[in-house]
């Protein structure tokens, strides 16, 4: 993406994280922020998601590597400066709603009037059409709840739908989707000369993620798929089992006849290999509750660390159910440079997960997020403005 410039008028995580991924791939992403308030995610420390006095990782994650330019788009001068930047850009990226884009004069036709070759990219909660095109949303609502994901993963016995696995879970997946779409749009423009309008939404992403389940529910005329708790797994060799120390192991051995003897051997239960209740896939499915209990008893013999050694060389697929902090020191994560070590603008060290794509076996260029308006002067000087002209804009309040 070296040589590609993105002008981003967006806030929070879902769309900005697409810009962050593009910076890792070499793009110059100009994050446009209001001179006074900036991106509201800068103040997220007040929500309790960021430790007081620590690095604002929730802002760093979707804004890594960008340059911050603080412009008041409600002012005539601020909008004029934005359009000067648009004239130099390849991509315009936004998550503002239709009415806000129209009010600020940054809709497709407004931007294309200054650069007819720019790729215009919109991310939204539920799409640009329909009765809710003007409604906002977050991944908890539009991606997780509305798509059926929350309902589908929640056992009936729980009595309530479970939350997402963590903050911004759907947002970061959506950002990766948008970054990929931008890459395709740039390739299309390179081949044809045509600049496209790119759209994605959290609802579309959630429906895509739930695609097999949604299609299956429709095909079988079901409100939802039957929900199984671990003690009732239909295929006992695709399940999660507790260890002696209260941790868990996940096994995914879909070809159960192939892996049954090996698993029973490593679980030190060879007598179960030929047990008439479990000696075929069909019988294990028929006697699934008993089979799950037998496998569970085997895994309960050792701790998680002991199982990591015992299972190391088996052919069947398994994984420890890790805690988020353990991922940082996972040997495979370290060996592949999946997590970057950074310092924020104050010199405080922190870590960020890199974008999950590498080129030529090298991790992306992960850099810290910018301070509010950190690059305003720099970028405006690149447009040819003098410091005296920039100071006039600062006095008027059009820029920071």
UniProtKB/TrEMBL annotation:
Q: What is its EC number?
A: 2.8.3.-
**Does the UniProt entry include the keyword Transferase?**
yes
Gene3D superfamilies, sorted: Crotonobetainyl-coa:carnitine coa-transferase, domain 1, formyl-coa transferase, domain 3
The source's superkingdom equals Bacteria
- Provide this UniProt record's keywords sorted from A to Z: Transferase
Against InterPro entries, the record matches this protein to: CoA-transferase_III, CoA-Trfase_fam_III, CoA-Trfase_III_dom3_sf, CoA-Trfase_III_dom_1_sf
Which class of enzymes does this protein belong to? transferase
> Which GO molecular-function terms appear in the entry?
transferase activity
Family annotation (PANTHER family)? E-CINNAMOYL-COA:R-PHENYLLACTATE COA TRANSFERASE LARGE SUBUNIT, SUCCINYL-COA--D-CITRAMALATE COA-TRANSFERASE
Name recorded for this polypeptide = CoA transferase
Q: What is the lineage of its organism?
A: Bacteria, Bacillati, Actinomycetota, Actinomycetes, Mycobacteriales
């Amino acid at each position: 993406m070296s040589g590609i410039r993105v002008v981003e008028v967006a806030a929070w995580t879902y769309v900005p994280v697409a810009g962050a991924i593009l910076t890792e791939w070499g793009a110059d992403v100009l994050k446009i922020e209001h001179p006074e308030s900036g991106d509201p995610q800068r103040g997220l420390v007040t929500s309790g998601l960021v430790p007081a006095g620590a690095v604002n990782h929730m802002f760093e994650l979707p804004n890594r590597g960008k340059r911050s330019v603080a412009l008041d788009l409600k002012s005539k001068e601020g909008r004029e400066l934005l359009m000067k930047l648009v004239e130099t850009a390849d991509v315009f990226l936004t998550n503002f709603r239709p009415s806000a884009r129209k009010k600020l004069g940054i809709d497709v036709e407004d931007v294309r009037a200054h650069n007819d070759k720019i790729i215009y990219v919109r991310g939204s909660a539920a799409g640009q059409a329909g009765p809710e095109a003007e409604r906002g949303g977050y991944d908890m609502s539009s991606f997780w709840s509305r798509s059926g994901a929350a309902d589908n993963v929640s056992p009936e016995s729980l009595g309530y739908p479970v939350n997402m696995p963590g903050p911004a879970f759907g947002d970061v997946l959506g950002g990766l989707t948008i970054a990929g779409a931008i890459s395709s749009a740039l390739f299309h423009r390179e081949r044809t000369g045509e600049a496209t309008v790119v759209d994605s939404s959290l609802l579309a992403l959630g429906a895509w993620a739930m695609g097999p389940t949604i299609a299956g529910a429709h095909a079988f005329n079901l409100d939802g798929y039957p929900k199984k708790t671990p003690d009732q797994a239909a295929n006992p060799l695709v399940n999660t089992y507790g260890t002696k120390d209260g941790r868990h192991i996940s096994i995914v051995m879909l070809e159960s006849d192939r892996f049954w003897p090996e698993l029973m051997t490593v679980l030190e239960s060879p007598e179960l290999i030929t047990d008439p209740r479990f000696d075929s896939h069909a019988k294990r499915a028929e006697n699934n509750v008993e089979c799950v209990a037998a496998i569970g008893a085997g895994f309960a013999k050792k701790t998680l660390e002991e199982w990591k050694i015992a299972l190391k060389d088996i052919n069947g697929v398994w994984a420890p159910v890790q805690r988020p902090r353990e991922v940082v020191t996972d040997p495979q994560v370290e060996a592949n440079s999946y997590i970057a070590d950074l310092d924020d603008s104050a010199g405080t060290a922190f870590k960020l997960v890199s974008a999950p794509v590498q080129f030529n076996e090298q991790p992306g260029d992960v850099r810290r997020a910018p301070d509010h308006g950190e690059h305003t002067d720099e970028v405006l000087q690149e447009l040819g403005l003098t410091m005296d002209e920039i100071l006039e804009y600062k006095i008027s309040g059009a820029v920071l």
